[in-house]
Amino acid sequence: MSEHKEVLDEEPRSILMGIISQLSRGMDLSRVTLPVFVLEPRSFLEKITDFMSHPDLIQKTSLEADPLERFVQVVRYYLSGWHIQPKGVKKPYNPVLGEHFRCKWTFPDGTEAFYLGEQVSHHPPISAYAFYCPENNFTLTGELSPKSKFLGNSAASMLQGSTNLRFLNIPGEEYSITYPNIYARGILFGTMMMELGDSVTVRCPQNDFICDVEFKTKGFFTGTYNAIAGTIKKESTGEVLFEIGGNWSDKMEIRQVQNGRKGSWTPYFDATVSEVYPKIVAPEDQQEQYESRRLWSKVTNALMSRNMDLATDEKTLIEDNQRKIAKERDENDIDWSPRFFTYKNGEYCPKLNNISADPQVAKKQIEEFIFSHQETNASYQELHPTQ
């Protein structure tokens, strides 16, 4: 796990220690302003796309006739994105209300995928997102609400929320996916590093399958970094069908279990050789003011040039502007609502409805929905900052 370790200089360490001295164990960190040197130079809305970096693993899954094999492939796809981590202990920008990130991917076979993320709530922070690949018959929608806690020598980011994956050509089949928690270790003493921990589930109730995966954290004296252990089972009976093991940042393996007898381990996913498909993002000068890369561009440029004072100033400007906008909304009794998502049945759903069964028609609908530059929310447009 050396690529996720970081040794801080004395000045950054002393700044962190000054902040930490004011905290108590279990304290919510959401309102604590962290120094910019712990920032990863991109928004959380963009970071979510890491989970979608290996679409080749699921491109043909909708054509697989065996429901169990489809489930095995969905689990592999889910586990494949976690190896993409910044060096050291870094935290992405907290998106501001109304911020959005959009991009697309083009694959070797000519098919395309599209992503849209929007910050739909500030307190609590909620990021809603949608990933569409109509030519390969699947969509992925969900929301994440990270909640940070101080745990002594560690800080935890609890990733609350879930993702729903659907195959457009298999009506009624849906996969519900939860997320592990992220731990920043060594913030008081020792080497700082990131770990994933705790258990997650992937469920497909229609086919009676469930996968429980434990992201194992390293013990003080025993264990290894980034290990996982999981089982794929029939949910109604608890019968184990597959076991999964290995390392989420390196190689994972799978073996079949039949009538209690375990087969041989076979390769499941190898992060060291798998291709990460690059995102296609519009140039910043063609983005709207509240698109992630444009909104945070001055902070990012300052971080990349290691000008921490300037990065702090630019970040403060964005945050102060958000407080000013919120105050104006309250004073003028203006309701804010998301541009791309709507709250329905206890969750945020894309406003795009009735996607065509024809992949090419669906693709045009999705492109028009995501990349339209028409801002339809009057209060959102009125309260945009000028840059």
UniProtKB/TrEMBL annotation:
Family matches, as InterPro entries: OSBP_sf, Oxysterol-bd, Oxysterol-bd_CS
Lineage: superkingdom: Eukaryota
UniProt-listed Gene3D superfamilies: 1.10.287.2720, 2.40.160.120
Similarity comment: family membership: Belongs to the OSBP family.
Protein name per UniProt: Oxysterol-binding protein OBPa
Gene: OSH6_2
